[in-house]
Amino acid sequence: IDRDSRSYSEKIQNSESYKKFRDTFVQEVDQIKSNINDVVERNTQIDTDALLKEVDVLVSLDTGATSYSVFDMLHNMRKFDDATFVHCLNVSLICTVLAKWLKLSPEDVKLASLCGMLHDIGKPVSFYLDEEGAGHFPDHAARSAEMADAALRRLRASNALRTQVVELIARHMTPLEPDPKILRRRLSRYGKEATWQLLALQEADFAGKGTGQQATIFRETEALLRQLLEEKSCLGIRDLAVHGRELLELGFPEGRRIGLCLNFLLEQVLAERLPNEKYTLLEAAKRFLQENIS
Prior knowledge:
Helix content: 55-70%
Structural class: mainly alpha
Shape: elongated
Low-confidence stretches: 1-5, 62-68, 77-82
Strand content: under 5%
Strand order of the largest sheet: 1-2
Number of helices: 15
Distance between the termini: 70 Å
Radius of gyration: 24 Å
Mean pLDDT: 78
Order of helices and strands: HHHHHHHEEHHHHHHHH
């Protein structure tokens, strides 16, 4: 670490605003730990408003600091025990700050905060040690989604908010990489908005771990995602160069077989096995008709 970086870090750690942030962070983590342990050990109801209150306290902390310095302070607390509840608070803080920077609606800020806070809540109940003493969390994303869903149902959260939170948590370990095939599939399955939200959650997740190892990959993924959207890539059946009418003219019977063929063609285009060109797709449709219907 060069002297300038070390001096900047030391300056932050010696500041009164950092000390206040650190002390408040420790208090809020203790409360979050208590809340999460109650859920895991006693199956009590998750009070999401109470959980998010801990985040709001830190985001709006009157230390004279800007939102930018929240990241500086988190970076300088890496020696703090990064257990599940601490990581969840970190990710929720990052999600909240980013959402406010982007001037999102209060409902979208709440969505971002909840996703960050609850994304790993299933880790304590899915944890096990292998024979070599290494810890694992199999299916923790699915378990976290189940617990978040149950909590939000009990709290009578809106269906839209609950669905978005649960789906994002369930998918937060799903790879998003700078690979056009992978991103086309994610966009086709999740849609534009949900794919961007998932990428933001994953970026906050890694930022909350403080490794910094994925920063370049996230930048490349963002750039490719924008490129695919600007190119108006084929992402759904409606984007195909052929439609049901052309398949009827080829001799397809009306009904579900047209849908099966269109889904087959979309899969070929997404996998880059076929270009989205009318002639090529019609030839593939003819083969599909011969092999699956005739």
